[in-house]
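RECORD TYPE: inverse folding
INPUT: structure tokens
STRUCTURE:
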């Protein structure tokens, strides 16, 4: 009996984690019935169904309608819109409208508005001009959320909720009296005793010792530099405040609508998404590749990050056409819209919603083009959207719930990023760029990598990279030591473990808590001004890798030297080391990682760890990922170039997109994508 019980549990673990109404692959679009004559709704829904749409997001900016006057609620317009969509078997994700409050709220209660450092309140003629720290604003957000959730509780056609919209997209900071008071309350809860805060922050420096909590304020621009410990706690406060704002609405909706899934969208700064996604059934990312000159690897990086937060993600807003407000981005080339959508799916997305159905006639986003143009005439974008939708209608439920499995992880500590956000050293420090460097290098080598949060379990990976791991504590150090001792390969970059979690230096020798595992100590460092890549290089095997900002000077104890500095007074001294501990290895790379070092180290240690490429016969520029469900693998092959490219993945594959066998060699057209399933 025990044997069969274990088999049952293992089988259940392979099933997709269905959250409320999220039990199938979503293909949809963002829709705004309040913007359009009701006479268009039926035709809109009919054409959506024709394109394979099964879900739309609505309501996220309609607070003015839901509550036209304080305490007076109405839902008729949206009830009729939902009923019209339901005629065509289209379900709804309802957005709470708290990113854009109505005029009666901001003008009757101006204390909810963001206050700039100079004391001026933000103008209320846009969106996201209110402070999450405001108790009055949170009170009204709770009321509208409760009213909406009460009205739509148990509604058969409302399957999910998006809380707010793109939290911290436009504004994060506010400097009014209540904002300062909330910061103090946060610190009082964190430290309990004022003396504890003084000692952990080191406020004896520059005579900053606090005698009363009321003496502490949010750090604003002053005559000199702020305490790094203060700045880290301030960023922790900003994240905590946004998560409190999110959780307030989550708890209301989850209580009243327990069968609906709950999410929020966007990826922005000063927010710990690992913490926020604990109360999230699925994470939602907004993918706008045209914000980047070369979007292939940046978009893949953001997808990998999104997948890391709670293990499940979807796209709530996928770029469809030209985008812009006062600015204007380039237009997607023919085929790129769907290529980028399938790239997100290739990296694990279990849903795809495009922004937006029809391009707005008026206001700030009239240049954010949707599936349909302003004149409502279906053109090439409509045709491409329809083709994509019908493809996903065919294969969506096959790939739904399949997972990305990787033997390689990049360790991410958001708080370390906040440390570098203030003490950035030089303008060349860019942590997101380093993640992108790893994603690019892995893609070219046809290796699959994860990005994983610092508090996640990384013990099952074969290789773990740790960029910018500036803060260290004993529990994390013990996890790293255990990982290496059990056979893992741990690779860290320069300036590892130099501070504690107060963002303070300590009495310990660098890398603190990790001297023995790396088999070295750090005697000093050099920080090169821009452009640092011309200042020095590291000889690593046959590779010459340009330095990236930092150069550590290690003193070897038990480690072996695997790379040396190539020029200057450091020439010939250790620049990369390897220390064997029991079954594993700890590698210390003495500069910050860049693309060249990521590629060289991935190539070397993936071979040592017996990690093989996903597929052979695929050129470097072609992206390959693999999703797995049970014993079935789905290989996504994407051509991001403007040219035909020959590939040869081998025989024995079936092309799910085009319903045909792939017999060895195949020519990918520009922006073409395939989903191959082994026969």
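DESIGNED SEQUENCE:
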């Amino acid at each position: 009996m025990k044997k069969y019980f274990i088999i049952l549990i293992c089988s259940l673990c392979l099933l997709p984690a269905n959250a409320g109404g999220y039990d199938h692959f979503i293909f949809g679009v963002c829709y705004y019935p309040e913007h359009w004559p009701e006479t268009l709704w039926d035709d809109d829904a009919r054409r959506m169904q024709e394109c394979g749409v099964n879900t739309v997001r609505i309501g996220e900016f309609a607070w003015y309608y839901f509550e036209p006057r304080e305490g007076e609620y109405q839902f008729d317009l949206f009830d009729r819109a939902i009923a019209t969509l339901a005629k065509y078997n289209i379900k709804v994700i309802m957005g709470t409208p708290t990113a854009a409050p109505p005029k009666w709220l901001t003008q009757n209660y101006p204390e909810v508005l963001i206050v700039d450092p100079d004391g001026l309140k933000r103008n209320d003629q846009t969106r996201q001009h209110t402070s999450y720290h405001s108790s009055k604003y949170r009170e009204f957000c709770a009321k509208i959320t409760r009213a909406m959730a009460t009205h739509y509780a148990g509604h058969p056609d409302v399957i999910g909720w998006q809380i707010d919209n793109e939290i911290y997209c436009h504004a994060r900071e506010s400097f009014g009296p209540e904002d300062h008071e909330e910061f103090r309350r946060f610190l009082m809860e964190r430290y309990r005793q004022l003396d504890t805060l003084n000692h952990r922050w080191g406020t004896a420096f520059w005579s900053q010792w606090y005698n009363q909590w009321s003496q502490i304020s949010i750090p604003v621009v002053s005559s000199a530099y702020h305490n790094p410990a203060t700045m880290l706690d301030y960023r922790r406060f900003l994240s905590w405040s946004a998560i409190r704002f999110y959780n307030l609405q989550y708890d209301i909706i989850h209580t009243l609508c327990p069968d609906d899934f709950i999410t929020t969208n966007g990826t922005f700064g000063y927010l710990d998404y690992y913490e926020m996604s604990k109360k999230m059934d699925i994470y939602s990312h907004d993918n706008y590749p045209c914000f980047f000159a070369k979007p292939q690897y940046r978009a893949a990086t953001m997808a990998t990050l999104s997948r890391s937060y709670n293990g499940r993600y979807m796209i709530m807003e996928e770029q469809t056409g030209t985008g812009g407000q006062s600015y204007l981005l380039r237009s997607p080339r023919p085929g790129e819209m769907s290529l980028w959508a399938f790239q997100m799916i290739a990296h694990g997305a279990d849903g795809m919603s495009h922004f937006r159905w029809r391009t707005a006639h008026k206001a700030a986003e009239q240049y954010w083009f949707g599936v349909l143009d302003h004149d409502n005439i279906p053109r090439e974008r409509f045709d491409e959207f329809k083709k994509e939708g019908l493809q996903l209608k065919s294969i969506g439920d096959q790939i739904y719930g399949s997972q990305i499995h990787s033997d390689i992880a990049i360790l991410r500590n958001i708080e370390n990023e906040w440390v570098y956000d203030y003490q950035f050293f030089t303008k060349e420090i860019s942590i997101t760029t380093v993640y992108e460097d790893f994603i690019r290098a892995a893609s070219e080598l046809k290796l699959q990598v994860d990005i994983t949060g610092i508090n996640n379990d990384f013990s099952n990976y074969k290789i773990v990279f740790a960029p910018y791991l500036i803060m260290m504590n004993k529990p994390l150090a013990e996890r790293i030591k255990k990982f290496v001792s059990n056979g893992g390969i741990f690779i860290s970059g320069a300036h590892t473990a130099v501070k504690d979690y107060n963002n303070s230096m300590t009495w310990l020798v660098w890398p603190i808590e990790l001297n023995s595992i790396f088999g070295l100590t750090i005697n000093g460092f050099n920080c090169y001004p821009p452009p640092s890549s011309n200042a020095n290089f590291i000889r690593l095997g046959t590779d010459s890798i340009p330095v990236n900002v930092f150069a550590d000077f290690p003193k070897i104890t038990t480690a072996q030297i695997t790379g040396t500095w190539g020029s200057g007074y450091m020439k010939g001294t250790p620049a990369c080391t390897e220390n064997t501990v029991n079954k594993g290895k700890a590698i210390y790379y003495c500069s910050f990682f860049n693309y060249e070092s990521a590629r060289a180290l991935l190539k070397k240690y993936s071979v040592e760890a017996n990690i093989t490429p996903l597929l052979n016969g695929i050129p470097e520029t072609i992206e390959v990922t693999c999703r797995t469900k049970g014993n079935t693998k789905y290989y996504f092959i994407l051509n991001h170039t403007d040219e035909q490219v020959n590939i040869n993945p081998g025989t024995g594959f079936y092309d799910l997109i085009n319903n045909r066998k792939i017999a060895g060699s195949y020519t990918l057209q520009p922006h073409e994508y395939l989903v191959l399933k082994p026969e």
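NOTES: Confidence is low (pLDDT under 50) at residues 1-18.
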